[in-house]
Amino acid sequence: MPAPADRAFGFRTRALHAGTPPDPATGARAQPIYMSSSFVFDSTEHAAELFALRTYGNIYTRIGNPTVAAFEEKMASLEGGLGGVATASGLSAQLTTILALAQAGDHLVATANLYGGTITQFAVTLKRMGIDVTFIAPNDIAALIRAIGPSTRAVYTETIGNPAGNVADLEALATAAHAHGVPLIVDNTFASPFLCRPIEWGADIVVASATKFIGGHGTAIGGIIVESGHFPWGSGRHPLLSTPSPGYHDMNFAETFGEFAFLMRARVEVLRDVGACLSPMNAFLFIQGLETLPFRMPAHVANARAVADFLASRAEVAWIAYAGLPGDPSYALAQKYLPDGAGSIFSFGLRGGRTAGAAFIEALELWSHLANVGDAKSLVIHPASTTHGQLSDADMTASGVRPEMIRVSVGLEDAADLIWDLDRALRRAATAVRA
Ligand SMILES: Cc1ncc(COP(=O)(O)O)c(C=O)c1O
After folding, report:
1. Which atom of ligand 1 is nearest to the CA of 114?
2. Within 6 Å (CB) of ligand 1, which residues are found?
3. Residue nearest to atom 16 of ligand 1 (CA)
4. CATH T-level assignment (fold) for domain 11-21+32-281
5. Rounded mean pLDDT, 163-167
6. What's residue 373's pLDDT?
7. What is the CATH code for 294-434?
């Protein structure tokens, strides 16, 4: 949806309209699902022009599809970026991003408070591929600067860390990364673009698991990459973008595509070769989810606050880590970067440790015990034995996971019903500990 020159549409309007005008072919008002693997060329000349990237258009759904493109355009608009590339999952959004920038012998710096799957992707899989990652304590700018070397291709963080809930100092991280010629990549999964737009604070690339709040209903796995359009890809810091690529008949992406260099390489080389593309059906589900994101997020935040206040008032609860609570170490950063709320995913610990935690989770009825977040339904999990279970004790501690930690993703039910269920489960847990 090209916004008129004299009007900047608001977030709700863009959530409904950006990227999804009435279908020019049929007039369909909802986004059609173009369930087609491939697209007919006008002529052999047209086919050759498309493959040579001299004309932009649909070729094959692994590298582009009209329904997927509509989702990409809506996400780019909501994150305030230049454009987007959608992928099969959040993890493949990360991998596609990194492989577009780095190769064997290269290096990344990442904050340690990341999703467990991201830590293993970085510390094990990327390492096997020859890409080294230095993990630093969250927001430790001095450590970040020390870690950046000549082969560092990016700095990586999460807006709100999973599951410790600490908020990234995006502006400070971006300033430090840029001072050393390196882009900042931010995983914005827990905030969603409704609560935080990292590009406004200097981030260069935003990645997210669309599986969570973007879809919003726990139905589909997917990922998204959005780029700001501000990073100087031709500076020489990213040879994959600024030297001839044997993967695309010696194309120099920075020279050919300017600010689109990263997105183009991510799509036409990495998506093409790795193949982790988003299905049109899932893109449709994410478009549906985005239409109500601006209404769901405030309701998630209000319920999270009610649940956090309830837990904080209970003697059975030893600690609670929610950046939305005054007194939390991330409260000030949340006020700055998440003024409309610190999301609805947070963690707490019970006084009875693991025994109490297990009894608590098993006693819950409304809350679903499963490995996901950002669903309309309320969810609960024990990270140390599940999402972060593959980490060493040291990595677990560095990522902010404590053995007794319980992570909740607060959904959209009546807050009073969620609290009723928590109250019952807390009593059961206390009984289990006494026994
Ligand atoms: C913060 C964060 N980033 C990325 C991912 C990976 O997303 P996906 O499961 O869609 O691959 C997750 C999954 O839980 C996550 O919590």
Report:
1. 1
2. 89-91, 115, 117-118, 158, 162, 187, 189-190, 209, 211, 221, 223, 373
3. 115
4. Aspartate Aminotransferase; domain 2 (3.40.640)
5. 93
6. 97
7. 3.90.1150.10
